[in-house]
Design goal:
This protein has 290 residues and is α/β, with parallel strands linked by helices. It contains 2 helices and 20 strands. The chain has one domain (80-285).
Length: 290
């Protein structure tokens, strides 16, 4: 069965502009990209106006935001791109079981389970460009060991205060490379999340999510020279991608991953440390990921 490339990555040219001299740090880029706090014209990022701040307090707040942005910029470069290790060749990896329902499922890359043994009901010929590894198979064992290292690395990255998105819907946002975090669950509602690589082919994004990730019938798009292969979703419990979502990036979940009818993760991976990956007529592809 042919594999379709399901995520269009548009390339464009735009240059980052320095923050204005008035101290506003969440200004828009020329192409409309904004930092999270500026979505509604609020440079503070927390809904409060900066007009009331004055003196040393205002200076301290500005210094803190500058430090946070410096950490983001220092981290979001090629030398710090998270390493998948042995999990890199896997499109689907689980700790307990991989379960599929539906003949329309297409998987490009390896499928693995460890320490579990069960991979059930994959369509004939699946996975393509990969094999199935289970139980004590050395490839699956190493992949799970490296997945644990990856999970801990993603969870431990510093998250700038300006990039705390707890309670906000990712749909409609345009985000620059960096680390973004949620103190509880995260949601991508109906709409598009746009990730602006700012003309850096090695740009990456890390989303640290303390509990669940819920994805509606939405789209993840990377623009201006980047790749969704460098998008990492660290999920503290379980991830659910609902019907017909055009999702992308590496889902790295502590517990389980559920892909509902017709949901796509491409390019990307569904990597569950402890529990199951459950699929229903889905497409998961590492084809565009080197």
């Amino acid at each position: 069965m042919p594999c379709c490339v399901l995520l269009a990555i548009a390339c464009g040219g735009s240059d980052y502009v320095d923050p204005p001299v008035d101290g506003t740090l969440d200004g828009a880029l020329p192409d409309g990209t904004v930092r999270p706090g500026d979505r509604d014209g609020d440079p503070s990022g927390d809904g409060a106006s900066g007009d009331g701040a004055s003196g040393d307090a205002a200076g301290d707040a500005t210094d803190a935001r500058v430090d946070g942005d410096a950490k983001l910029d220092a981290d979001a470069n090629a030398s710090n791109v998270p390493v998948l290790g042995g999990a890199k060749t896997f499109a689907v990896l689980a700790g307990s079981t991989v379960t599929n329902d539906g003949v329309g499922t297409v998987i490009v890359g390896n499928v693995g389970v460890s320490p579990g043994l069960a991979v059930t009901d994959l369509p004939p010929g699946q996975p393509t460009m990969g094999t199935v590894h289970v139980g004590n198979d050395g490839v699956a064992v190493q992949a799970q060991l490296d997945l644990t290292k990856l999970y801990n690395d993603l969870k431990g990255r510093p998250c700038p205060a300006a990039n705390v998105l707890t309670g906000q819907d990712l749909a409609g946002m345009t985000l620059l490379p960096g680390v973004y975090c949620f103190a509880s669950s995260a949601a991508l509602g109906v709409g598009t999340l746009t990730l602006n690589a700012n003309n850096d082919p090695n740009a990456f994004w890390i989303f640290q999510i303390d509990s669940t990730l819920d994805v509606a019938a939405s789209t993840v798009t990377v623009i201006n020279g980047g790749t969704a292969c460098n998008v990492f979703w660290q999920v503290g419990s379980s991830a659910t991608v609902l019907d017909n979502a055009l999702f992308a990036g590496n889902i790295v979940a502590l517990s389980s991953i559920t892909l509902n009818t017709g949901a796509k993760v491409s390019p990307g991976r569904a990597l569950a440390r402890d529990a199951a990956v459950t699929m229903l007529n889905n497409q998961v592809s590492t084809l565009l990921c080197p």
